[in-house]
Amino acid sequence: MGDMMNEENSMNLDDRIGQQTILYGYIAISASTNRLSHNFNKALKEESMDGMMIPMNIREDDFYFTLANMKKSHVNGSMLGLEYQEDILDLLDSSSMMVKKCGGCDFVKRVGQTLHGEFISGNIVKEFIQADKSIKKIAIIGDKPLAKALAILLDGYEVAYYDQQIEALLSMSKVLDLNIDINFLSPNGVDFSDFDLLIDTTLEDLSSCIAKGAKMNLDLKDSKTFSSLKHLSGYIGFDNLLDFYTLHLIEDLKNGR
Question: What is the pLDDT of residue 16?
Answer without folding.
Answer: 63
